[in-house]
Amino acid sequence: MTDLISVIVTTYNRADALDAVLRALSHQTDRSFEIIIADDGSGPDTAHVIESWTPRLPMPLKHVWQENRGFRGAEIRNRGIGASSGRYCIFLDGDCLARADFIATHRRLAESGWFVAGNRILLSRGLTAAVLAQRLESETWDIAVLMRERLRGGVNRLLPALHLPLGPLRKIHSRAWEGAKTCNLAVARRDLDRTDGFDTHYTGWGLEDSDLVVRLFHAGVRRKDGRFATGVLHLWHPESDRSNLQGNRARLDEVLASDRVRAMRGLSTMIDSSNQPPAVLQ
């Protein structure tokens, strides 16, 4: 695939982590991509980070913002999709650091009729604090460094850092929705349009990504495994409020029991607004 890729990075009031994410993306070996920051209501610190990176990046950077009205991950991702120009979208969380071959590997794995679900290594709270405070480029660490951190309890596992040529084994879980998360998920734009993107009835933490994956299955799109190829380093963060999880699970169960393809309230319902991120104070 040679088309432009859109990397849609969701964030909320975590400017130091976003700075590290943009640093990692700036070092990609494949530079034929754009970055869309999908901002779920952050304050001026986030806008300042984005402004500081805009002239330094060798690829376009856009900032899409919506008012803070609680966790609205589905809606802000739809706004990110709407602002994107690529024919292939990679969703990445604003605290996930991509290794230098992340874009190149996703491009190589891209295939018509398939989406790619990657995985992650979780960093501990202490190691995350050190990475951010000392501006450590942890996305460049080799397996030896990661192994030392594993022995110290700094990371939870090593396997996502390995690169293995799995070939046809990447398709053996083609109908499994579990474990496919928007911290590392790649979907063709035409498939997002067919499914109408994320369902914004999902609010609060949880399962809006699973809902999308199930509807992709209903549309005939299958899952390709990005493990041992596209792993990212996921910085620690406190557990999100899960008070809406029960309602979100009920919505997901309904989709699982149906053959519905399109979101109940999705990408096509997004209306362009004049929402602007908070001004950066000079």
Could you describe the 3D structure shown?
The protein has 282 residues and is α/β, with parallel strands linked by helices. Helix content is 32%, strand content 17%. The protein has a single domain, classed as Spore Coat Polysaccharide Biosynthesis Protein SpsA, Chain A, CATH 3.90.550. It has helices at 15-26, 44-53, 73-83, 102-109, 125-134, 143-152, 189-195, 208-218, 245-256; strands spanning 5-11, 33-39, 61-65, 88-93, 96-98, 114-117, 120-122, 184-188, 222-225, 232-234. The strands form 2 sheets. Strands 3-2-1-4-8-6-9 form a 7-stranded mixed beta sheet, sandwiched between helices. It has a 3-stranded mixed beta sheet with strand order 5-10-7. Helix 1 runs parallel beside helix 2 and helix 8 runs parallel beside helix 9.
What is the radius of gyration computed over CA atoms, rounded to a whole number of angstroms?
A: 18 Å
Tell me, what's the shape? Answer: globular
Low-confidence stretches: none
- Report the top-level CATH class: Alpha Beta
Spatial order of the strands in the main sheet? Answer: 3-2-1-4-8-6-9
For the record, the CATH architecture stands as Alpha-Beta Complex
Under CATH, the homologous superfamily reads Spore Coat Polysaccharide Biosynthesis Protein SpsA, Chain A
Summarize the structure.
With 282 residues, the chain is an alpha/beta fold. Helix content is 32%, strand content 17%.
List the helices and strands and how they pair.
Layout: E1 5-11, H1 15-26, E2 33-39, H2 44-53, E3 61-65, H3 73-83, E4 88-93, E5 96-98, H4 102-109, E6 114-117, E7 120-122, H5 125-134, H6 143-152, E8 184-188, H7 189-195, H8 208-218, E9 222-225, E10 232-234, H9 245-256
Parallel strand pairs: 1-2, 1-4, 2-3, 6-9, 7-10
Antiparallel strand pairs: 4-8, 5-10, 6-8
